[in-house]
């Protein structure tokens, strides 16, 4: 038999470097690999063997897909093979979804949050023309337009007024020609954002950071903390623990980074994203523990 746990990533395997040290410290039998190295060979027989480099994937007990990136075809092949060989796959959303799961599509993710009863900002998904019309007619300025890929907040635009919309529309139209899809979303007046890391459906850490547009918000919180607050939330406030665990369950993610906005002048709390491949560098910095070790300990118990 091969290694018990396979941890795999789309693209360069260096993205998994921190798992190497954690694996050694815990003494676990783990293989780290890239989706780039998936292969199979036809040998004039009906027997099919999918391999990662030269190891048969059927020898693994469990597969953790850290992130897919652009390797959708390889990931679908891997998950299908895992199903047929009764290998457990994390996140468990892959138990039922092979093509464009919610780990890739923000449109699917948002639909799942809505169906799961998770509170999100008022939102509308469609083509750019309809998204703009919806924003103009149904949302107050400023409002948000963001892409369905949502790459680390880079594809999020604050529309401040009609003139700003006209200017940004030119940029957005070019992006739509290349296949991008969009949401219109209500702007939440929150000067702080919260990131909660959930593992196995349980919130294990939370941090807070200033929001991108906090300087546009006038509130008691911004007056008392002009530079914003940076640090861990320990213990995790129940309101964030509850909504993050509900969100991770709604999108079927075992390892999830839930981004939350808490409006400054109200008690309204909104989930803006539930990420399947969350960055956890800041969580490790604030909480002083290895997220890789936490994940490996949890995987080893499955």
UniProtKB/TrEMBL annotation:
Domain called ATP-grasp: residue spans: 110-300
Listed InterPro entries: ATP-grasp (IPR011761), ATP-grasp_RimK-type (IPR013651)
GO molecular function, one term: ATP binding
GO CC terms of this entry: cytoplasm
GO biological process: SOS response
Keywords assigned: ATP-binding, Ligase, Nucleotide-binding
PANTHER family per UniProt: BETA-CITRYLGLUTAMATE SYNTHASE B-RELATED, RIBOSOMAL PROTEIN S6 MODIFICATION PROTEIN
Protein name: Alpha-L-glutamate ligase, RimK family
């Amino acid at each position: 038999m091969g290694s018990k746990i396979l941890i795999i990533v789309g693209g360069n395997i260096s993205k998994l470097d921190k798992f190497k040290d954690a694996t050694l410290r815990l003494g676990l039998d783990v293989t780290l690999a890239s989706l780039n190295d998936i292969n199979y060979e036809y040998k004039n027989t009906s027997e099919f063997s999918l391999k990662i480099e030269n190891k048969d994937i059927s020898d693994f007990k469990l597969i953790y897909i850290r992130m897919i990136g652009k390797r959708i075809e390889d990931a679908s092949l891997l998950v299908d093979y895992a199903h047929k060989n009764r290998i457990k796959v994390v996140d468990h959303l892959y138990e039922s979804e092979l093509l464009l799961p919610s780990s890739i599509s923000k449109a699917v993710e948002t639909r799942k949050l809505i169906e799961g009863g998770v509170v999100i900002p008022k939102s509308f998904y469609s083509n750019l023309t309809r998204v703009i019309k919806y924003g103009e007619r149904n949302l107050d300025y400023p409002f948000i337009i963001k892409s369905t890929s949502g790459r680390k907040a880079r594809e999020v635009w604050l529309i401040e007024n009609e003139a700003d919309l006209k200017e940004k529309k030119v940029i957005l139209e070019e992006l739509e020609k290349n296949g991008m899809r969009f949401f219109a979303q209500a702007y939440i007046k929150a000067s702080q954002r919260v990131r909660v890391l959930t593992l196995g459906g349980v919130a294990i850490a939370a941090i807070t950071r200033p929001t991108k547009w906090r300087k546009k918000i006038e509130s008691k919180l911004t007056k008392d903390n002009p530079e914003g607050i940076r640090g861990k939330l320990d213990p995790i406030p129940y309101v964030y623990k509850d909504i993050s665990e509900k969100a991770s369950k709604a999108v079927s993610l075992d390892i999830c980074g839930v981004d939350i906005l808490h409006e400054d002048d109200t008690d309204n709390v909104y989930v803006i994203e539930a990420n399947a491949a969350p960055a956890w560098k800041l969580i490790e910095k604030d909480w002083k523990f290895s997220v890789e070790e936490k994940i490996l300990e949890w995987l080893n118990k499955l």
